[in-house]
Amino acid sequence: MLDLHSHVLPGLDDGAPDLEQALAMCRLALDDGVRLMAATPHWYPARDPLAISEISQEVLALRSELAAAGLPLELVAGAEVALDPELPRLAREGLLPTLNGGPYLLVECPPHTSPRLLPDLIYGLRLAGLRPILAHVERTWAGAQNWDWLTGLVEQGCLVQVTASSLTGKLGSAPKKAAEALLSLGLVNLLASDAHSASWRPPGLSQAAAAAERLCGAGAAEVLTRLTPQAVLAGEEPPPAPRPAPRRGLFFWRK
Q1: What's the angle, vertex CA 193, arms to CA 190 and CA 196, rounded to 5?
Q2: According to DSSP H, which parts of the chain are helical?
Q3: Are the CB atoms for 135 and 107 separated by under 8 Å?
Q4: pLDDT tens by residue, 190-234
Q5: How far apart are CA 228 and CA 67, in angstroms?
Q6: Domains and CATH numbers, the chain
Q7: End-to-end CA gap in the chain
Q8: CA dihedral in degrees (179, 180, 185, 186; nearest 10)?
Q9: Rounded distance between C-alpha atoms, residue 232 and residue 220, angstroms
Q10: Which of 99, 185, 228, 244 is the most exposed place for a label (fewest CB within 10 A)?
Q11: Rounded to 10 degrees, what is the CA torsion of 131, 137, 141, 144?
C-alpha cells in the first residue's frame, strides 16, 4: 500500500516531534503493509511557508535514518497546502510543493471552510496545470447532507482523499458516516492516514482498506491504496473511483 498523506518529518509541523517518533511511525506503517509514504508537512502560503528545498532535504535525511535502521520504507516529498487565494499564482510560478514534484497537489480543507470558496481556486489550479487532491473532505464537511458541489469539482479533475481513521470510526461517527457516503457516491479516490504520531492518528491503511472493500466490493482497496497513489506519483491519469455495485431489484412474476 502507498500512503500519500502523512506528517512524518520530524520537527517541521504538528506531526512527529523528533526522529524517534518519526521512526516509530515508519515502523507502524511497514508493519501494516505500507511500503511508501509521502511526507506532507503543513504548508501555509501566508505564514512564511517551508521552502521546497527544505522539505526535500528533510526527506533525504529521514531516508538515511530509515536505511540505517533497516526499515525498507520509501519516502517521497510533498506538502499539505492550505487553501489560499494566492494558490493559482503560486502554481503558475512553480512555487507549490506538489507530490513527488509532479502535477498533483494535496490541498488541505480546514474546518469552517465554505465549499463555495473552492470552485474558483480549483479552476485556477487546473489552468496552471495542477490536479488538486482535496484532503480529509469527510472531516471538514462531516455533517454535509448534499455532495453535489463536490461532484462538480471531481468533474473538473479534482481528486478526493479520505482519512483512514474516519472510515474505521476512530475519529467519530460523523466523519465515518460522511466517509461512507462519499464512497457510496463514488467520490473517493484515495485513502491516506494523515498520520501525526505513533499513537494519535497513527500510520496504517489496512483496516480502512478492508472497510472500503466491505462497502464497495473486491478491488476497492487496490484502487484506493495502490493503483491511484501510483498514478498520482507518476503524474498519470488515475483509475475510476470505486463505488458499490448496484443492488439487484426484486422481480415478481405475474401470471
Answers
A1: 145
A2: 19-31, 52-68, 87-92, 118-127, 137-140, 148-155, 164-167, 173-184, 206-216, 220-222, 228-234
A3: yes
A4: 999 999 999 989 999 999 999 999 999 999 999 999 999 999 999
A5: 27
A6: 2-234 (3.20.20.140)
A7: 54
A8: 70
A9: 17
A10: 244
A11: 90
